[in-house]
Amino acid sequence: DIVAVGDVVDYKLNQDGTGVINEIHPRKNYISRKAPRIKGAGTRGERLEQIVASNIDNLVIVSSAKSPKFNNRLIDRLIVAGESSHINLIIVINKIDLDPSHNTRQWSELYTKIGYQLFETSVTERKGIEELKNSMSGKINLIWGQSGVGKSSLLNIIYPSLKLKVGAVSDSTSKGKHTTVTSIIKKVDENTFVIDTPGMREIDPYGIRKEDLGHYFKEFLPFADSCRFNTCTHYHEPECAVVTAVQNELIHHERYQSYLNILETIEDDMNF
Questions:
Q1: Full-model pTM
Q2: Which residue in 19, 52, 204, 239 is a FRET match for 80, CA 20 to 30 A apart?
Q3: Residue 71 has pLDDT above 80, yes or no
Q4: Residue 66: helix, strand or coil by DSSP?
Q5: What's the rounded Cα separation, in Å, for the pair 21 and 30?
């Protein structure tokens, strides 16, 4: 599409209520992903760019502690998409009331240690709600995450005027059902906007070269300059300082595994 949610445009309304866009103003940023392959087209062929939204201040990544289960792999892919677009990131672990044993606390500590702003929230117990609202105030906020993690429920409790439709999690698959079917932007107060997006099952960031992927893992940066090769992909090259840091537990092995998984999808696309 020529126009994305969040674009600033000049338009003219017709008498019948339709309109014509005359100009699209330059974007300060935008976030995108590889478009899904066309059903029936097989596994080969170019993956086109799908722009999700533009002119974003905060990318709010929402996951859930349970129902559906916490998904650090998806969070890491969304982080890469946000980092590569130079957008401020906020991570939300929702439904913490379903995690009385605090199994996701280790992830909260990990992402906080890396340097990300993170909130643990519960709609039913109203935990973390005001803190999240304050971080979104005066900004254009893109809310992104998989289906069923409670994005719409969170937005409804923060901004009751939205009255977004709320879905349920399937008992048979433990996965969320789609309730938001298209991205919409809403003005929720004088200077604050939210973009609610359809839930996803997976994402491949677009337009990233394998030698650049490590730039979007913040904890790699203190070590990457010490690699033997300046185009090091931190995988098979000799004298890789990032791999050594992983071995010495200075970089978390789960984050490094996420890196390798994304690197593999980049290499798969380059082999077409």
A1: 0.88
A2: 239
A3: yes
A4: coil
A5: 19
